[in-house]
Design goal:
Layout (H helix, E strand, L loop, with lengths): L1 H4 L3 E4 L6 E2 L2 E2 L3 H10 L3 E6 L6 H10 L9 E3 H12 L4 E5 L2 H9 L3 E2 L6 E4 L7 H12 L3 E4 L5 E4 L2 E4 L1 H12 L4 E2 L5 H11 L6 E5 L2 H10 L3 E5 L18 E3 L3 H4 L2
Parallel strand pairs: 1-4, 1-13, 4-5, 6-7, 6-8, 8-9, 9-12, 13-14, 14-15
Antiparallel strand pairs: 2-3, 10-11
């Protein structure tokens, strides 16, 4: 644990690590205070595409945690950056919430429900059959299918809920195509995070609650991995994966210690 605590930077997931829905998890205020007090660099890296960094900042503020807006990076921002680099000035049909739509607008991508270059899918609480049907027809007509993240589920106060990978699967199956997913564990997200922190991967740890996104992302980026059991993954599930986290903790409070 001394080696972990000596790291200069921490990349932290949010859902299942800091909170469930609108409920702050135990030990989180102490963890963030420790990050600030010890002058650690930190970035909250979330696969959730629904909220903007400012909205995430305000959400934490409502929960009693103060973090600068530039302390957040989302799969929506990563997706917008990816599309802007692949096809500058392109258009997209979007199934998603304001965090994703704003990120796309900010890099010059326009909304198009007739003949878009891409169909982009993120978390969408208003998803319905009409949207899925239109998205499928657009993909069949040549639009490329991109997902903000490959999470099947996400934690809420009520339990698990379908996430992006589950929401996009009807389009994949109906159109006979495979989506490209930008968020964790895609190395693009980790490169963006390290660049934003301006730090070497050897002096960084990633903290997350998901083996298939957070921990895989860290393993593939050669960053020390910390699995917390406060979210989706339970200890008995570890045997199902061919890779393991370097640390397995009950929650972020274990990082702070005594």
């Amino acid at each position: 644990m001394d080696i972990l605590r000596s790291k200069s930077a921490f990349i932290c997931d949010m859902d299942g690590v800091l909170y469930h829905g609108d409920k702050l998890l135990p030990g989180v205020p102490e963890f963030i205070e420790w990050l600030k007090k010890t002058k650690k660099k930190f970035l909250f890296l979330t696969n959730n595409s629904g909220l903007t960094p400012r909205e995430l900042q305000h959400k934490l503020l409502r929960l009693g945690i103060e973090v600068n807006e530039d302390g957040f990076y989302t799969s929506a921002l990563a997706t917008a950056s990816f599309l802007a680099s692949q096809a500058p000035g392109c258009s997209a049909y979007v199934l998603g919430q304001p965090g994703l739509i704003n990120a796309l607008y900010d890099v010059g991508i326009t909304m198009n429900s007739v003949n878009p270059d891409y169909v982009v899918v993120g978390e969408d609480s208003g998803l319905n059959f009409e949207k899925l049907e239109r998205a499928t027809h657009l993909v069949l007509n040549g639009a490329r299918l991109v997902g903000c993240n490959s999470d099947l589920t996400g934690p809420t106060e009520q339990g698990l809920a379908p996430a992006c990978r589950a929401l996009i699967s009807p389009i994949e199956m109906a159109a006979g195509v495979e989506a490209y997913f930008v968020g964790k564990p895609n190395p693009l997200m980790m490169r963006h995070a390290l660049k934003k922190l301006n730090i070497d991967e050897t002096d960084t740890a990633i903290v997350g609650d998901r083996m298939d996104t957070d921990i895989m992302a860290g393993v593939e980026a050669e960053i020390d991995t910390v699995l917390v059991l406060s979210g989706v993954t339970k200890r008995e599930m570890l045997v199902k994966f061919p890779y393991r986290p370097k640390y397995v903790l009950e929650g972020v409070w274990d990082i702070v210690g005594e």
